[in-house]
Automatic annotation (TrEMBL):
The lineage of its organism: Eukaryota, Viridiplantae, Streptophyta, Embryophyta, Bryophyta. This is Amino acid transporter transmembrane domain-containing protein. Residues 43-481 form the Amino acid transporter transmembrane domain. It is found in: Cell membrane. Gene3D superfamilies: Amino acid/polyamine transporter I. Keywords: Amino-acid transport, Cell membrane, Membrane, Transmembrane, Transmembrane helix, Transport. The chain crosses the membrane at residues 47-68, 74-92, 198-222, 253-274, 295-315, 335-355, 398-418, 424-444, 456-475. It comes from Ceratodon purpureus.
Length: 492
């Protein structure tokens, strides 16, 4: 999504390029094929690019926590909860896709961001709440992805160490340097000006997500078929005497709540759905293409989620690790485990950008509008390179995006708790962004009569999902408090 001044600059450059004909005479500017009906540069996104964005956004680090989440609930409740989250996510994403244009979902005025859609349908009062929740969630996702990428890099380091020095060797590893490396890569990639230019990262990330999910699935199946193996139970982790390896009833309840947050995080992508939809061509209508892409993406990810989560639980039973791939540290072939963790890192490098670009665009557009004559904010610099077109950069974009990446990296170092951070982010975003705003906007846009059957059931859905989010937030917070009692920041 380009800031207004960038779009105007593009139009001027196109105008200069077409202002004269081949004979040197003046010619009228007529290049309508390069612009949409609202005067902005024509979008080129398709079902496949949108599907890649969705899969990149949905199949993230959350898939690695699903075996642990199923272990908290058992063989019956675990898979059922996964399917329920998939259904709710697809249903509400379909409602949200119809809110891209207002008032008519096909011919109405475009809403370029999630907040634009909320403002058009619900008015300015709820925009502030939406903005706080949406961008706080994007910030939290940046932190969560940094933690996950570092944990996978640490797993690779420790796996190599164990296989060279033995399982009793001193194979401690700090996640701080790996978080720093991940942050450095994001500083460079964050200079990509806009969301629409991320398609190659999304395609690469989608491929990586399929690859490491397949590796996790294969390793889980291989370990699950070993003889004399604990394959889990119907009710999950057992309650009993802690000295005998069981958990207390309170810990069981908190674990289930935290698992709900982890599953909610695994399915969260609604906060960037409108931004993805804004990359699509206007024909066929964007809402139809987006619904197809959402359905394809969610079905694809649910198949992987169910397979990986169940295979992981069958492999480790009630002792399933919080991060599935880190649980295969002593498993052969260890190079395959390392490959899976490497794919996680590559995937999260791209996914980090998919989630942060909307936040970058919002902040930059806001300041560009407030200070339209600031050279620091608006001036573009060009750097000639021998192998292609000149690279362009902006000092404001360089400084502020670098500061953002540094901030998220430092926060990740302070709170490197994989499951609890994933659960808290999922809980914080699930109800407001995935359910509440899509439901309320749909009711307003379609003018659903108050107290009608549809109005009633939509509100029932919203209330149930609010209760789930609240329980997940409490469970993840309790887990994080317990972790903080034992953790020393910036140490191994």
């Amino acid at each position: 999504m380009k800031p207004q001044w960038r779009r105007e600059q593009d139009m001027l450059e196109l105008g200069r390029g077409h202002a004269c004909n081949v004979d040197g005479g003046a010619a009228g500017f007529d290049d309508s094929s390069k612009f949409d009906d609202d005067g902005k540069l024509r979008r080129t996104g398709s079902f496949w690019t949108a599907s890649a964005h969705v899969i990149t956004a949905v199949i993230g680090s959350g898939v690695l926590s699903l075996a642990w989440s199923i272990a908290q609930m058992g063989w019956v409740a675990g898979p059922v909860v996964l399917l329920l989250f998939a259904f709710v996510t697809y249903y509400t994403s379909s409602l949200l896709a119809d809110c891209y244009r207002h008032p008519d979902p096909v011919t109405g005025k475009r809403n370029y961001t999630y907040m634009d859609a909320v403002k058009a349908n619900l008015g300015p009062r709820q925009v502030l709440l939406c903005g706080v929740v949406q961008y706080a969630n994007l910030l939290g996702t940046s932190i969560g992805y940094t933690i996950t990428a570092a944990s996978s890099m640490v797993a690779i380091t420790r796996s190599d160490c164990f296989h060279h020095k033995g399982t009793k060797g001193p194979c401690h590893a700090s996640n701080v340097p790996y978080m720093s490396m991940f942050g450095f890569a994001q500083i460079i990639l964050s200079q990509i000006p806009e969301f629409g230019e991320l398609w190659f990262l999304s395609v690469l990330a989608a491929v990586m997500s399929f690859l490491y999910s397949t590796i996790g699935l294969g390793l889980g199946i291989a370990k699950a078929v070993e003889p004399h193996h604990d394959h889990g139970t119907v009710t999950g982790i057992a309650v009993g005497d802690p000295s005998l390896g069981y958990v207390t009833l309170n810990n069981k309840i908190w674990g289930i709540c935290s698992a709900l947050g982890n599953i909610a995080f695994a399915y969260s992508f609604s906060m960037i759905l409108i931004e993805i939809q804004d990359t699509l061509k206007s024909s066929p209508p964007e809402n139809k293409t987006m619904k197809r892409a959402s359905l394809f993406g969610i079905i694809t990810t649910t198949v992987f989620y169910m397979s990986v989560g169940c295979a992981g639980y069958a492999a480790f039973g009630d002792n399933a690790p919080g991060n599935l791939l880190t649980g295969f540290g002593f498993y052969n072939p260890y190079w395959l485990v390392n490959l899976g963790n490497a794919c996680v890192v590559v995937h999260l490098i791209g996914a980090y950008q998919v989630y942060t670009q909307p936040l970058f665009a919002f902040f930059e557009n806001t300041l560009s509008s407030r200070w339209p004559k600031s050279k620091f904010i608006h001036k573009e610099y060009f750097l000639k390179v021998p192998w292609g077109e000149p690279l362009h950069f902006n000092l404001f974009r360089l400084v502020w995006r670098t500061m953002y990446v540094v901030m998220t990296t430092v926060l990740s170092m302070l709170l490197p708790f994989f499951n609890d951070v994933m659960g808290l982010i999922g809980a914080f975003a699930f109800w407001p962004l995935t359910v509440y705003f899509p439901v309320q906007m749909f009711i307003v846009q379609r003018q659903v009569p108050k107290w009608s059957q549809k109005w009633f059931w939509l509100h029932v859905l919203s209330v149930i999902c609010f209760a789930v989010s609240l329980a997940a937030a409490l469970g993840s917070t309790e887990g994080m408090i317990s972790d903080l009692k034992k953790y020393k920041p910036f140490q191994t």
